[in-house]
Design a protein that fits this description.
Layout (H helix, E strand, L loop, with lengths): L2 H11 L7 E5 L16 E8 L17 E7 L5 E6 L10 H13 L4 E10 L9 E9 L32 H13 L4 E8 L8 H9 L4 E3 L3 H9 L3 E11 L11 H26 L2
Parallel strand pairs: 1-4, 1-5, 5-9, 6-7, 7-8
Antiparallel strand pairs: 2-3, 3-4, 5-8, 6-9
Helix pairs in contact: 1-2, 2-5, 3-6
Length: about 280
């Protein structure tokens, strides 16, 4: 049984409608689900650790639990999937392994995806604790999930064109609805371009100066492969960076540590995830 078929079987066994929205949570944000946190109007409907799902590999990155958590809206009956943690290339995984949780969800019927991440600011006006809606992206990871034979489904049919257009990776209407919802929750929200690198090293001060001179907004070690894979399939995607730190050099001589990134994520985790649940309720009504 492949990953998509396993997910479909799980939906049938749990009497779940196909999740209409799949939300990926970045570093530190999984803390929102610690200690059985409950979210108003949403009922938990089961969880699938990556290691229990055929075709997925467990996450090894700190702060990324690697669990698919399903919630049903008590009024509308719509289901949302929170991917609590993601996979990364720096874990020694191929781009296709990294995007497999999302590709499988899409093949199982989900059509909307929201990608969140923790990212370093490349603009001093994008302070720690703020949010950046991703308007576009730059993939400098040196890899692409579409490299090799064009991805196909279980029947051998291409999931998308060999050379997909990337002129509008992040859906502007989807982004506008998300921005309106976040502003209503009193978040400080900017928009900018996300730069995806391979990691796991943080950027040097020279690299940060270069990237900032290009007009980019934030930099991180994820997201770009996922967005490429989703757009290849012709599906809707929005992106959201939580600014967890200033790029190296912008914050003086402060040494960057992943523990600090997680710490900042935990500060905002419950509030942000609660806002994403509220957005999902409106989006799926």
């Amino acid at each position: 049984m492949n990953t998509a078929e396993y997910l479909k079987d799980f939906y049938r066994r749990e009497s779940l409608p196909i999740p209409a929205l799949h939300i990926v949570l970045g570093s530190g944000l999984s803390a929102a689900f610690n200690d059985g946190t409950k979210f108003k109007a949403w009922a938990p409907m089961g969880a699938l650790p990556f290691g229990d799902v055929p075709g997925l590999v467990p996450s090894t990155a700190p702060g990324h639990k690697g669990i698919l958590r399903y919630y049903r809206h008590e009024k509308s009956g719509s289901v949302v999937c929170f991917q609590v943690g993601r996979l990364h290339g720096y874990e020694g995984l191929s781009p296709r392994q990294v995007v497999q949780p999302l590709v499988a969800a899409a093949q199982a019927g989900t059509s909307k995806f929201l990608l969140t991440n923790a990212a370093g600011s490349l603009k001093k006006r994008f302070p720690v604790g703020s949010l950046m809606l991703i308007s576009d992206q730059v993939n400098l990871s040196g890899a692409n999930p579409l490299s090799g034979p064009n991805p196909v489904d279980h029947a051998g049919m291409p999931l998308g064109p060999r050379f997909p257009d990337m002129s509008q990776v992040y859906d502007p209407k989807f982004r506008a609805r998300l921005k309106k919802s976040l502003l209503a929750k009193k978040f400080k929200v900017n928009e900018g371009i996300y730069l995806g690198l391979s990691g796991p090293t943080y950027e040097t001060p020279a690299e940060v100066r270069l990237f900032a001179s290009w007009g980019l907004g934030a930099v991180g070690m994820s997201t770009v492969w996922e967005a490429i894979a989703i757009r290849h399939m012709g599906l809707e995607v929005a992106g959201l960076s939580f600014i967890s730190n200033l790029g190296c050099g912008l914050g003086g001589t402060k040494v960057l540590k992943h523990e600090d990134v997680e710490k900042e994520g935990k500060k905002i985790a419950v509030k942000l995830v609660d806002a994403l649940f509220d957005f999902a309720a409106k989006e799926l009504a």
